[in-house]
């Protein structure tokens, strides 16, 4: 059995969202060191504020200032902070019910250790040195035993209101292609393409998934295919994607290629021929670059085009 491969992968993108009047006032308030909640029709104060009552679904817009100090209602110790979390040293995740609020706000509590944290402890907001109108304007909470501050009763009206935020989204994970695809990837490093043959229908699938997609039975018998193949269908790409290599100019052709001996077409870029001369049935072969683990592209072999009958079942 080949060694099963693993690789770290990251999915990352900026998420842009506009803010309604309630969230706009809340985040602008944080920028100005003011914490706002919203009042429901039955008198509850929700912090952080929402635009609709979670119980009655009524729209709520009655903003009210609450204190920047409160009480820990529950907590969990975080011994190993991860990238992007509020503090770089071990801290407690806490739910804090600010004075004047009926709900709790989730944030970090800076404490020397779990023995210093308990439900019911009093804490206050530690403001970030630089604030922009985001939840990170609250750097964290810290223990507090002093008197409550006097509130100005802010209405939620500010100058230069924050109307939108950009929240970076990122997912770090480790991908394992499994036994079948690990064998396929390892073979590519030797410039060979291998699929797996179904023990029932005898079709060869490339890249292999470890099971026949038609019969549903497990596959294990490797079968080398190609290296030449036939273009079964294609598209002309007119927009250059961010990850496209700098030396690839649009338009170019991306195609389904049925390698000789395979019963499933794989994807590949077609080069070495003007894009408007690529056609179904075109015979192609892989082009490898030095040190590459997969073909850079496929180019015409010069053979006559394959008859449609030979690949129609692969469309």
TrEMBL record:
One of its GO terms (molecular function) is DNA binding. Residues 65-127, 224-288 form the ChsH2 C-terminal OB-fold domain. Residues 187-217 form the ChsH2 rubredoxin-like zinc ribbon domain. The keyword Zinc does not apply. Keywords: DNA-binding. This is DNA-binding protein.
């Amino acid at each position: 059995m080949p060694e099963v491969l693993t690789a770290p992968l990251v999915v990352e993108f900026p998420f842009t969202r506009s803010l309604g009047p309630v969230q706009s006032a809340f985040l602008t308030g944080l920028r100005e060191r003011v914490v706002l909640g919203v009042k429901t029709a039955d008198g509850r104060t929700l912090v952080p504020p929402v635009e609709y009552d979670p119980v009655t679904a009524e729209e709520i817009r009655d903003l009210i200032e609450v204190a920047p100090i409160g009480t820990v209602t529950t907590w969990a110790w975080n011994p190993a902070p991860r990238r992007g979390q509020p503090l770089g040293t071990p801290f407690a995740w806490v739910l804090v019910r600010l004075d004047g609020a009926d709900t709790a706000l989730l944030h970090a509590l800076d404490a020397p250790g779990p023995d210093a944290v308990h439900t019911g402890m009093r804490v206050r907001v530690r403001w970030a040195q630089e604030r922009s109108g985001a939840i990170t304007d609250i750097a964290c909470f810290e223990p507090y035993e002093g008197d409550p501050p006097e509130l100005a009763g802010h209405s939620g009206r500010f100058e230069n209101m924050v109307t939108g935020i950009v929240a970076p989204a990122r997912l770090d994970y480790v991908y394992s292609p499994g036994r079948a695809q690990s064998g396929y990837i390892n073979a590519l490093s030797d410039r060979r393409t291998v699929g797996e043959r179904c023990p029932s229908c005898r079709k060869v699938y490339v890249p292999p998934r470890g099971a026949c997609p038609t019969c549903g039975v497990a596959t294990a018998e490797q079968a080398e295919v190609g290296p030449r193949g036939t273009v079964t269908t294609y598209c002309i790409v007119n927009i250059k994607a961010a990850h496209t290599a700098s030396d690839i100019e649009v338009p170019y052709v991306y195609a389904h290629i049925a390698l000789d001996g395979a019963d499933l077409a794989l994807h590949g870029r077609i080069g070495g021929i003007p894009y408007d001369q690529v056609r179904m049935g075109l015979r192609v072969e892989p082009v490898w670059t030095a040190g590459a683990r997969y073909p850079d592209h496929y180019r015409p072999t010069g053979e006559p085009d394959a008859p449609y009958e030979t690949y129609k079942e692969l469309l």
